Amino acid sequence: MAHQLFGYIINALENKLVSVENDKEGYGDYFNSWHPNDSSGKTRVFSRNTRLTLRVMFWLIVSRIVQSLPVALDSFFSALNLPVPLKSAFSMKRTVIKSSFFRLMGHTLTEEFYKSSFVRKWRNYVLVSCDGSRVALPEVEELGKKFGWYHTYQGEELYPSAKACVFQDTLNNITLYAALEPKDKDERYSFEEHFEEALAITGQRAIMLLDRGYFSYLTIYLMIKRGVKFVMKTRRLPWAEEFIRSGRKQGTIRIHPSKATSIYGNRDWRKEPVKELTVRLVRFDHPDGSADVLVTNLLPAEGITCADIIGLYRLRWPVETSYGIYKNEEALELFSSFRPDGILQDFHAAVILFNLASILDMDCDIKHRDKLKPDMNVIIGLIHNLCPVLALGPANREFARRLRTIADEASHYKILIMPGRSFPRVRRKRKTSGKFFRHTNFSLAV
């Protein structure tokens, strides 16, 4: 095994879980109701002795319940050699836990990862990108009211739908921050609302890599004002078209946004004595002969060339492929709850599982990493099978034994890296009814 990063992260999650359970003053932040003491004087999350402890509930939901609930409970508790609880007991217990608890555990995971010495960087910068995606929800009226409905152009409501916003560390394949928001919320507004919190999690210098969907003068202004380095593809604006026609490889431009643009809705911008944005432009040529313009505040004086800027933009791609893992291997859209907070529990649990899989990937001892990589589908399946053992707690011998061996198990499963490989994007016009519907290329890991 290359190192013990995965075991370190698991133990950090265990310590956080115990501290939250024992901190009765903070219970209201993470639990809807609780019993403050039992006969031994210890604080308890639930009102009586139960097999569905907080640790069991956490790892059961993180393992992703994509089967029918009785089957999932039977599989999980059979691995623990414990009697299987009723599905009604599980449903009642999960209503005690708020989705904020899973969000806290996810933040704990990422914060602990960035304290380690195994963080990959580009010239001492963490590379972060943001992307959004539509997520289909169960056909329940309450979810439609909370998140919105996916509808036809004629206005026919088809099914509840939400918008996922993900900030991805593209070199380490770690989801820094994720939010599930109403379907109609603009991606740029989500970015402007969350990007500072996402970058703060790393505690390190970062470069933000953004596609043209996030381009706006306000986005540029906010990142320059906050001291965030960025590389962003521009929209087809007159000054960008003029730069392309000039044939130049790079240049500097001073942009003076008009009062009709959204940047004038920002109070800080209106107070600026000189209302201009100074950025560097870099030409990005495509194999088909077309060209785009990248805008950045990384300057030649910092030793960063045009080739570096283009190379950085290409490194944003993992934020796109991450949704393939979420929606295929983890089956993100197969939710185990019909309540809004239960949907958010599943969403943040899926983020935790994704990050654990990425960290286990780093722990795998694989030669020729430029040609081979661990199979993420297998890794997610291994963690899914490990979750019942993790629910036993660190006092159990099997817990420690499995942590020592899981990276070795994952190292046996490798796939060939195929540069330039691509697949046509599948655009769904309508959700097919039925929880267990699968696309022909659906590669379920859990």
Task: Write a concise synopsis of the structure shown.
The chain contains 16 helices and eleven strands.
What this model shows, in words?
This protein has about 450 residues and is an alpha+beta fold. The relative contact order is 0.13. Helix 1 packs across helix 6 (about 100-115) and helix 6 runs parallel beside helix 14. It contains 16 helices and 11 strands. Strand 8 and strand 9 form a beta hairpin. The radius of gyration is 24 Å and the shape is globular. Strands 1, 2, 3, 4, 5, 6, 7, 8 and 9 form a 9-stranded mixed β-sheet that branches. A two-stranded antiparallel sheet has the order 10-11. The chain has helices at about 5-20, 25-30, 55-60, 70-80, 85-95, 100-115, 140-145, 185-200, 215-225, 240-245, 265-270, 305-315, 320-330, 340-365, 375-390, 395-410, and strands at about 125-135, 150, 155-170, 175-180, 205-210, 230-235, 250-255, 275-285, 290-295, 370-375, 415.
